[in-house]
Each structure stands twice: as C-alpha cells, then as structure tokens.
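Input protein
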Amino acid sequence: MRSLPNLIDKYPDESLEGFLCRFALVNHREVKDLELGYLRSDASEENINKYLASISILTGQDISKDFLFPFKWYLKGLTLPEWKNHYYTRFCPNCIKEKTYHRTIWSLSHHTSCIKHLIYLIENCYYCHKKIKIEDVTKGRCGTCHCLLKHTPVVDVNNEKEYVTEDGGFKEIGCLYLRHSLNETEQIYLTRWLSYYLVDRTKLFNLNLNSTEKQRLAKGYYHEIVLQRRFLSLAHDLLSAWPSKLVLFLRIHFNGSYDKVKEFMFKFVYSMPYENIKKLLWKVHERERGYKDIRFEHQYYDHNFLLIEDLLEINNIPEEILHRIIKKNKLEFIKHPRNNLNIINSECIPLIQNQVRNYSGKINFISVGAVAKRWNVSIKTAKLICEMFEVPSRSILESVCFKLSELEVLDQKATQYIAVQDLLDKSIWSKDTLIEYLSRRNIEIVFRSRINRWEYLYLREDAMNAFNVLSNNKSDYLTRREVINQLGKELFKAGQLDVYYSSGGKTDAPHFLKFDVNHVISMFEKHENIKEVFKIRNKEIFMRNMIKK
C-alpha cells in the first residue's frame, strides 16, 4: 500500500474517522475507496496494530493508539447511538465556521455543548432534520440536502451547573468518597444512570419514554439535547455529597415520604448494571440503615470528608500504617455527626497517600474490611469466620483488626462459608426473609455468633444452591391484598403461606409465592373444606420441620 499524493496533517483534537474522511476528500475519493476496512468491536491487539499501520502508510503520518478515539469510547459505551454503524455525530456550527473538521468529543453522548463557544451542539440538519454524520461535518454540508452546516442557527447554553471541564473532560464528582473510589468512566456511568433513574422513576420531567428511549437514556443519551444536559447536570450535582444530597432532594420531591425515598434508593442501587459501582453504593446503602437519619448539614461532611474506613479500603492501607502516619504528622480526624464514624478532611489525603507509598515497615494486623476483601466476602461474614476460628484481634483507630499470620492459615477454609449479608445485593428480599427461607430449605447453620445470636454462617455451597432456586422476579409473587382477593380471608389463614418481605419499600407489604397460592387453591378445590386445607397445611409444615430436625 502506497501513500496518496495529497497529504494532510491531523489536528490534535480531530477524530481518526474525521481525519480519514478529510484525507479521502483532498484526494478526491470516498473513505471506502481507501480500502482500509474497519475495526470490529472484538478486534485483537494484532488487528488494531495492522489497521493503524495501514493508515500510517497511506496518510504518511505516524498514527498510534493514542489516535484511536472515539473507537475506544465506543467500546466503553460512551458514544452516540448508532455511532459504529453510521458514524452519527453532533457538531458546533461556530467551530465549523473557523475550521471544517470533526472534533473527537462531538461523538461522546454526554457532550451536549461546545466548550469553546458555549452553545448547544447540533445533531440533526436544521433544514431537512436528517442525522448528521462525520463525513457531513468534514465536507461542511448536510449529506441529504447539502445545506451549509456553519449556517445552522445556534442556542446559547444557560447557567446550569456543568459536568464537563473547560478542556472537555468529565468533571470529577464532588463527593470525596465517589471521586476516590471510581475512575472517570465509572463516574460517567454513575451520573448517567442516576439521570435516567430520576427521569424514569420520578415525575420531575413528566416524560413518557418508549422502551428505546429508556435504553438510550440509561446509556446517557436523549434526543432533546437541552433536556439531556439538564438531566446530567442535575444528577452530577446530586452526587456531589453522597448520599445526603440525593436523599434530601427526594424527600422534597416525594413530599416527605420516607417509604418512597427508601424504595427509590434501594432500587437505584440494586438495579445498577455496573458491578463495581453497585458494590460501592451497596456498602453505603447498608451503612445508612434506611437513610432516615440524614440531615441538611450532613452534605458538608459527605462532600468534604472521607470515612477513615473508606480511606483504608480505597487506598488499601493497613490500619497499623495509617495509625503511625496520623500520629507522626499529628493529623486530626473528627466524628461524622450522622453515624459517629471517624472522618478525615480531604486536605490530609495527599499527604497520607504519599507517606503510604514510601512506607516499608512490617504489618501484623489488618482490618475486618481488608479481611473481607481478602476473602471476597461481606464484612459481617469476615467477622463471623474470624469469631468462629477465634482469630486474635486488637483495636486500631477504633476498628477491629485481626492477626495477619492467623488469617493466612484460614485463606482456604474461609471460602467454604457464607452469611446472608453476601446474598443481599443479589436479592430483592430482606435479610430476615432470606434467613427464614434458608431455614425452610433445611440449610444447616454451621456457626451462630456468640456476640449476636441472630448472625449465622452457612456452608457456601449449600446456601448458594438453595438461594439460586429462590425467584427474584416480583411477577412470581402476589401481594397480601391480591392473595386475599383470590382466596378470601378464611382460606388465606388456613393456607399458612410462607411470607417474603422486600429489602426496599414498605416493610408492611408481604409477598407470597404464586406457586404456594395455587397449591392452596388446588387443595380447596379437591376437598372443598377450609378446615381440611388447614389440617393438610399443618401436616406439611410439621413434616418440613421434622426434616429440619
């Protein structure tokens, strides 16, 4: 393959696709005539290198992987819908007036305005309303009606808080905990998921979205760009003090309804499609105990401070080391007014991180959080396993820490055990419901805590086999009202149905398995006697309990 006669330089902020369109144009060709092929979503490293090498030879420029945008963004799900198939893009008419080429960031779904001219980006031709492609931007004309894109009317952005920096990058989430725990891409995922949830699960914007619009909004895109910017700006702002700012906002929106706030927060966390983010939010969800104690003044602490236990986990710092650094530098930490846990100001964190990197001392004890991470279990499970095997412990920075040498011996054994806390983020049902369910399934409790008699350990294999049978689909269940409507009160009492309580929402809304309800109906149809149904159900429950014993 030889280079073509008319060579051009690539602009620093130009997309690779836009550069190829412009290169083909100056050589009086279409991009397809360059015979470069295209990159598949699952392209191997070798195929990517070959593709870039072909472009380098053809264009006479050294094209490295640093130029492979927005393809890399596409792989992360950050580009506009149909970008890969049709190369749809947004554009700024004022930028095209200055120089006609395609800017990389115009392909990002969360980019809604031009950071230079402070106007909304355009997605459709103003005259024929067809979607604009990268090739159209390169030519400066709509590919359908051939009107000049630089003459497109523009709209100035308003003064809403922006979630993009002056150089076009995604602005870090304000909350110290989320900012330190999530990378830039994960922060984008979280922001757009919250924006989708606010639109779909509240009446803030009163939009009636179809299934395609919902799917696209969940991935950070909405066809009305002014509204999309508003969604994302609101979500980004509400994440700046997690979780207090969102909870307080929801209280106002739901007119002070604690149950609605609790239900929204549970479902938002539970339905999070990104596993790492879900684990992070679930940890806070469990710590907040229903979000009932959140006050307005807590936003200051949730924004500017980090819990000591989170600082340790995020930076993988053993308590012993942090204790020595705090003592050496005379750093101060205070109590969070909501949960009375130790917190430290953001200004201290760079110093701590720097000294941790240069630390070379020996570690004898690690926190229960580090133990949980080591064994890939919940903190509660880690505590129970350590209690069962009587691992020596001591208190460091007001946290229970366990002897590392003893833990190393237990690494293999620890994988055999599980507590219901390890199942909660995978289930729609409450902790008590899961405990009762495992009991009905005759799953043996292998250890009962001496500190809290209501905390148990099970053999992992047995508990997981039983748990995997339990349906998490609400359509498999009926509410109390629905069951009574089918059975009547007397037959409902006689049926003695197993009860399932949800982890989120109202705790006084029990659910009952449809299969069990149909079983009671079948018995009544056969015997036509409520007392007989009561006797049979008594016998079934008795036999189940006998098997348990």
